[in-house]
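ESCALATION

Customer reports they have been waiting on this structure for their group meeting. Please prioritize. Original submission:
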Amino acid sequence: RSSWLLLAPLLTPPVPVITAPPCSLCPEGAHRFQWIRNLVPEFGISSSHVKVLSSPTEFYELLKVQIKAAKQRVVMASLYLGTGLLEQELVYCLEETLEKSLQAKGSPDLRVSILLDYTRGSRGRKNSRTMLIPLLQRFPEQVRVSLFHTPNLRGLLRLLIPERFNETIGLQHIKVYLFDDNVILSGANLSDLYFTNRQDRYVLLRDSPEIADFFTELVDAIGDVSLQLQQDDTVQMMEGMVHPYQGDKVAYCEIANRRVMEVINSARTRQELLHAKTFHSSQPGSSLLSQQGSQASGSLKPEPDTWIYPLIQMKPFGIQIDEMVTETLLTEAERDARIYLTTGYFNLTQAYMDLILGTRAEYRILLASPEVNGFFGAKGVAGAIPAAYVYIEHQFYSEVCCLQQQERVQLQEYSRAGWTFHAKGLWLYLAGSDLPCLTLIGSPNFGYRSVHRDLEAQVAIVTENKALQQQLHQEQEQLYLCSGVVSTSTFEQPNRYVKLWVKLVTPLIKNFF
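Update from on-call: job pushed to the front of the queue and completed.
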């Protein structure tokens, strides 16, 4: 049975066609997830290059250390940059590193590229733009700040929707932070909460030039179709580029699709050639002399035991790779396999819900209790969003009970005094295994917005290495340790009361948050 056939309706022309059944094992006897490389580049690395972080503080300190050590490039993609003291310290680190580069002999080598969302980054009088303008003014040749504006916010809609609410139409939601050849993938934004008491996930890929090149090219591609921040706080498009909300929408989306798919396909071709070259050089008939020469020069890399697959989702541009891979993983998970899935905003797409309820694997779904939801205590309409999530959760739980699936599909709520919860991703444990062999980590929340509205990126990390599997297992355990199992009595608690107007409005607005 090929799950590829089940996903055929999702195919769009720019996505390369899979030519082999998804679960067919590679003749070299490698891992069972190699079908993903038919869609995206496969980066084979040593597990020793992967480090899983656990806390916001660790994430923040690592950002500062990496910025200060950077010599060639700093590339940061985030929803926004906050305006507090901790964020200002990051800007100071960038300034200090750029200054050092400027004072070095010859022309400065360091390049800084920052990609943020236009609407979120422009919110308020003091915002991401005002934080970064001093860098643009001081280092105009070395710094680039791109602000992505969704093509779906245009015309009368753009004029009528007020600030904050305009962010519901679509965002740049990718979170990737890279420094020379070191890459941090996360769901965390560049804001003080994410550096102190907002729990997320973070993974560092050290000394991974091919992966760093890929994400540099991806951020450059999105940056090229984004508004460029100028020194006087105005924005303009690159010369000859179609404008995202003033120009033709179809033409803009076609150009954006082409730019992003060029990055994916060229990297995929490069990695396939590299894989073929490595495979042939490792064969018994290959030149012993050339192998000895490689060993002598120290260029022979250790055999990879871990594989990284970048998964991109940009539905406004017709790119649905992350959705396709995620649905295939859920479809193919066998009986007695366990999937730990976590999201800070529990609002699964209907397709994901149907797969969870209709397939055979066991699911442990971690979500935010109302008190650790990022919108808890917010002013105005936003203050009702946690109640809307409770209502969505209750509906899903009722469906689980109706199908008598409570043993197989279990909901757990993260709760931690003084903290909020923003972690997302999944861990896949094969049947009979106590350790995960695959994790998804990055920006998507598995909800309607992630699939249909925003620009998203995450990586699938597949590993055969027990030590790295143990790291991933401990990460999962640490998050789930702060949770309680959801039962019928959960929704009988006073703080779970959902007002009638919230119940009536939620089905109408659930695709916007």
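Sent to customer with the following note: The chain has 16 helices and 21 strands.
Escalation resolved.
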